[in-house]
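Q: what does this look like with 2-acetamido-2-deoxy-beta-D-glucopyranose bound?
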Amino acid sequence: MKFALPSAVNAAAALLLSLSAIPIHSLPINPASSVALEKHTIEGLNNYNCKLTPVHPRPVILLHGATLTVYSWSTFAPELIKRGYCVFGLTYGKNKKIPGFGGLTPVEDSAREIGAFADEVMRKMNVSQVDIVGHSQGGILTRYWIKYLDGAGKVYRHIGIAPIHHGTTLNGIATLTTALGLFYPFRSVYEPLIPSLSQLLANSTFMQTLNAGGDTSPGVIESNIATKYEDIITPWKSCFQHGPGVINAALQDLCTLSLDEHLDILHSKVALQFVLNQLDPSTAKTASCLSLL
Ligand SMILES: *[C@@H]1O[C@H](CO)[C@@H](O)[C@H](O)[C@H]1NC(C)=O
Ligand SMILES: *[C@@H]1O[C@H](CO)[C@@H](O)[C@H](O)[C@H]1NC(C)=O
């Protein structure tokens, strides 16, 4: 026992050194997914002078996934802004031990943080409801906020993109931690650094709490799009909610040719068309392979 603490500290230190030394482009994930550490901005995001209109009456808040950042939205946010939506987003769940990344803190803390952000957006935009689009872990924070914190009544539409409604098997966490250069299967190494990861496992205490009494949030219009080529959330149908009125769609049922996995789906025009259709059904166009053009 005497040496347990120092060796754990050393392991963590080695991990941090290796993490900070990894240039983002060397990560074995699609560089187009622009995950973290990049200092670019998304023009028009968080513009509190944006005018809400009868066509776009609510702010749209974008929530990224675990270990990612607001730049997950580098493709979708400009498309929404271009169409006149007032779009907001943040990198939540930061942890000083892993600078440059978000979605690292315990899920309950992240839910509290995004709730406070949504409250601020509503106050500044003078509205009482928002629409939320969330990817992966960002697709369940809203449900926790509504069910256990003070989010009830504040969300009109919720759209999940590869959302982790029912958790993932250890395979998915392994893929994610490997992609990040973390040393799976040494859970003792990643757990203190990214406590949310264990919470995202299927059947974790958190997942049981989240789904207790049902998958859906009464009063919220909910929809999800998932990919059959999912590599982080396994099995892929864990991305679906079960309950009255929920729309669940598989990317490949809209366009068989879509090969996008968990991160690529954030750059899929088919997924984008699905999101646009959900945000404003009155202008919906068929989301299909033609959306790729
Ligand atoms: C906020 O909205 C309410 C109606 O929803 C309106 O009466 C009020 O004038 C608005 N306040 C500002 C500062 O725009
Ligand atoms: C989760 O629990 C259910 C029901 O107890 C079980 O069928 C399922 O195999 C479990 N999943 C995992 C990944 O442990």
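The chain has ten helices and six strands. The chain has one domain: 54-292.
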